[in-house]
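ok trying again, last paste got cut off:
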Amino acid sequence: MAEAPRLDAPGGGAAPGASAPSHTDGPFTPGAAAPAGRAAAGTAAALGVTGRPGGPGATDRPAARGADAATGRAAADATTGRARAGVRVVPSWLWGVPPVVVLALVFLYPLALVVQQSLTPENGGGGGAFDAYASVFSSHGFREALGTTVWLAVGATVGCLALGFALALVIAFVPFPGAKGVAKFIDVFLSFPSFLITLALLFIYGTVGMANGVWSDLTGAADGPFHFLATPWGVLLAEITYFTPFVMRPLLAAFSQLDTAQLEVASSLGAKPARIIRRVILPEALPALAAGGSLVLVMCLNEFGIVLFTGAKDVTTLPMLVYGKAILESDYSAACVVAVVNIAISVGLFGLYRVVSKRAGA
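nice, full thing came through this time. structure:
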C-alpha cells in the first residue's frame, strides 16, 4: 500500500503558514488560469463554501469581516439591552395626553360652555332646557338669517368656481408674459385678511368711492349711481373676489399634472378649444373643483368680516346674528343657540370637504 502524501512533503503542498513558492515550473499563462479561477469561485459560491480555492488556510475575508461586524452589533445590542433593563419604558399613548389637554382647555371647554349656555333657561327661570332653541327656531329673524347665509354661501361658491376655473385656464394654458408671477401672487393673496378686500371695494364702489367720483365729474350729478356695495349683491361680490383664489390654487395644481399630449392629440384631430375644455380638461379638473368648492362653501358660511365692513345693514347672516344677540341685545342664550347651529352646519360641511378632498387626492 502506498503511503499517503504528507502536507509537509516537498510535493504534497505547502504547510499551513508556509510561504508560497516564488516561481513555477513552467511559463504562466493567464488565459488558462483565469477561467479556472472563475469556475472555482462559481462552484464554491454554488456550494456555499466560504474558503478560497487557494488552500485550506485561505478564507473569504469580506464574509469574515461581515460576520465579525454582526457579532459586534449583537454584543452591543445585548449590552444596551442589559443597560436599559432597569429603565421603565413610557407607553406611546402617554405622549398624546399633553396635546389633548391643551386642546381641551383652549377649545373644547369654551365650546362646552357655549352648549351649556344654550341649554340654560333665560334669566335662570324654570323653563325647559330646549326652550331657547324653540324660541330661536320659531323667530323670523333666525329663519331669515339662515336663508341669507345659505344663499350667499352657495352663490359665492358658484361664482368662485366659474371665475376661478376661467382664470386658471388662462394662467395654465394661455402663454403670456408674467404668468408665473401671477400664479405666485395667488399664493400670496391667500394670506390677505378678508376685510382688506372689502376696504378696497369700498374705495372703488363706496358712496364716496372712485366710481361715484368719476360719475359726478362727468355728469355733474351730486350723487353717483353705485350704491350696491351695502346690499347682498355687494357682499356677494366681495366674497367672490376674496375666495376665488382658494379655487384657483387646487386647479392650477391639477392642470400642472395634466398630460399635454392629450391636448395636442385633440387639437390635431380638429377639436375646437371649447370641446377640448369640455371633454379633456374639465374631467381632470372635477376633483380639484369639488375640493375647492367645498372649502369655499365652509368659509363663506362662517364669514363675518366682509359682511361687517361692507356696512350692509339689511344683510344678516348667522355670524352677524350671533354678534347682534350677544353684543347688542345681551341675549346670550339665543346667541349660543345660533352659534351651536352654525357650528353644526360648519362641521357637517367640513366633513364633506374632507371626504371630497380625500377622493380628489388632496
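cool. DSSP finds 14 helices and no strands in the chain. The CA atoms of residues 315 and 361 lie 37 Å apart.
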